[in-house]
Amino acid sequence: MGGRDTDIVLLDENGIRCDGRKVNETRKVTIKAGVLKNANGSAYIEFGDNKILVGVYGPRDVHPKHMSDTDTGILRCRYHMAPFSVGERKNPAPSRREVEISKVIKEALEPAVMLKEFPRTAVDVFMEVLQADGGTRCAALTGASVALADAGIPMRDLVAGCAAGKAADAVILDVNNEEDQAGQADLPIGYMPNLKKITLLQLDGVLTPEEYKQCIEIGIDGCNQVYEIQKKALQDKFFASGEKQ
User: What is its EC number (predicted)?
Assistant: First the structure.
């Protein structure tokens, strides 16, 4: 989290945030499934000004062979930010942050994916951030879940991602880039709504116990809203493909 930025009014006297939203309102979320012909499953997500493309490949043979598991499949995730995704050109080499987010997303998806259904194989998830605007790990997690479902990978539930946080001493839903940089706390959440199970929970910043509880509650509410958009993206794809046949 960055320090306070006095040039940005994060919350005005009417409780309206710097991008015009109310404290409990998410940014606009748009998801399209099945956008890459050469992937087994894919999705494109716009989460506010975040733009992320996800491709899923597999289940497929593991190389090298000794990395495979005779009892279960393995999930491999790569989160990467394109050099042009941020204001100052980013080094195309994977950063420590990208490696950490790849691991976090993998661990958030694993409870949803039925890996034991396909032992000795791997499912690869590639997430490419084309434009970043705060909350990319939640947006990438959300898109990856849709891409996995589009690939026909057996899943217990979709994982929806949405962050809560604190800015200008108020608990807010879906932290944008300005709020992330100048706010007080950011709490990304990954959630399986059908199973009512949290698979991702990270806190950057400081919250009181009561604020922490509030963030969890509104974050889960945000995930439930995102979940409906995920389901609609998959329905739109499969209904459209059914009509073409």
Answer: 3.1.13.-
51, 119 Cβ separation under 8 angstroms: no
Rounded Cα distance between 144 and 126, Å, is: 8
Distance of CA 181 to the CA centre of its chain: 19
The answer, as to whether pTM is greater than 0.85, is yes
> Which of helix, strand or coil describes residue 28?
coil
Closest CA to 178 of 37, 34, 6, 10: 10
Question: ∠ at Cα 234 (233, 238), nearest 5°?
Answer: 120
Contacts of 102 (CB under 8 A, 6+ apart): 77, 78, 79
* pLDDT for position 66: 82
Domains of the chain: 29-244 (3.30.230.70)
- Give CA–CA dist 56/72, Å, rounded: 18
d(CA 200, CA 191): 7
End-to-end CA distance of the chain: 50
Tell the burial category of 121 from Cβ atoms under 10 Å away from its Cβ (0-12, 13-18, 19+): middle
* Tokens read off for 74: 């393995």
Neighbours of 92 (CB within 10 A): 10
Query: With pLDDT > 70 as the criterion, what percentage of the chain qualifies?
Result: 95
Q: Phi then psi for 109, rounded to 5 degrees?
A: -85, -30
